[in-house]
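Minutes, project check-in

Agenda point 3 was the complex the collaborators sent over. CS summarized: two entities, 499 residues total, and the question is how they sit relative to each other. Sequences were read into the notes so everyone works from the same version.
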Amino acid sequence: MTTNTIYQFYRLLEKDTISFSYRGSFSNNVLTMATQLFKDNVEERHEKLRNKLSFLMIESFQNISRYADSEEEISLDDNSEFFMTRNIGDTFYVISANLIDNDKIPMVREKLEQVNTLDKSELNKLYREVLTNKQINEKGGAGLGFIEMVRKTKGKLPFDFVTVDNKQSMFFMQIELRNPKIDDGLPSISLSDAKQIQALVAQENILMMHKGDYSEDAVGPMLKMVEENMQNVSLKIHKKIFHFLVEILQNISKHSYALNGKHEGIFQIGYDHKNFRIGTGNFILNSKIENLKNLLNMVNSKTVDELNALYRKYLREGKITNSGSAGLGLIDLARETLDKINYEFIKINNTYSFFSLTVKF
Amino acid sequence: MYPEPIIIEPASKTPEIIFDKENNIFQIRGRSITENAFEYYEPVKYWLTEYLKNPNKQTKLVLNFDYLNSSSLIQISHIIALLEKSFKKGADILLVWQYEEGDELIENTGIELNLISHIPFVTEIFKNEDFEKFDFDF
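CS then shared the predicted structure for the full assembly.
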């Protein structure tokens, strides 16, 4: 994860109103929180789609666990599973990817091809057949999940298998849910987009990524989600990540440049077998860059002892500004990060720039 | 309004606060990560200022946070400054800083507040199971 890749991700997700992706070990907890995240943040005009979206997220997610073979304990930085939900225009996408044994591919392919070619009444017929029939395999699916996905979305299920080695492949699938009342006229996002994002997420060791509106009240559900998902990380690290995420996200909601009334931003949590990283990106007015740069350079140039002294001085003086803590949060961040605070400003136009930041714990 | 006690229920981003002169209970517990810390703590500081004009025989303030953002920390430093002023005038004040076992961030914040303040200050470790967990619902 670098300040530059944060911008690359931002560009890949530029059209997304909200997007959330998760890589690594899956638990129902992640699912519950991801579902909640979308439920809370979906715009009012999509109200009717909320339940359907939750249902599809659950089906897709459970499909991963159904076809994933790994019985072993999955580690935090495992690349075997990936889950993503995106809202672009008036359409929602639910993307899943997981490792599958190569010998199971024909069976899965056959089921998917079947549901992708059937019309509505044929699907209903198949649905009833599967429900009443005994053709349930030991994993409990018999493709009912796929049938439901197609019935609920009235669309096709794009899928693909990307060979990993002679034993396993990565199985990608995408569900597309359009709002039947609103036609945004946008073309569908192709599955290759999802594959590109998954590959980059794996390459950059990103565990969790969110892009969306970082206005004050949008931050809450996400923080809760991060907190829930960090439970199996040591208390010390978990507390640190949560603590600084609060500071950074609140900074974004306060100081970022709002486009169309939204404080658009992206955040990532990464883990590279050793250290955690938090990365964020947001827009900032060009006129604010100079001050922020000076502040960042100032804290980056100081030793931990100097930062401690500065921190106590600020605390002692107890000064507050409109920003609430007059740089106290930034000093705190600088002395806790294992590295310097890495940052970059990428000029977008004469008014604003993209500001990205990474810190390591 | 003072002298009525302040009793504030905990919420997703704000802690439980009890400032009760009659029962001699002064405590702030839970999570303080609100963006609007100044507004949140303003009435508490006002109450405390009034109370410290004529405080109880002993005043023990218990602070027990699981998360504290920097803008809340500034407000806590203001509260400590009020206590310090009163302590210097002869009031019997004790600040108890509690933190969860293993929570270095909150422990260190306590150490720092102790360093910058000049009032009787004790730190206490508490185990998570002793603590009835608040159900934070964002």
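Noted in discussion: Chain A has two domains: 18-206, 214-361.
Follow-up: revisit at the next meeting once the mutant set is ready.
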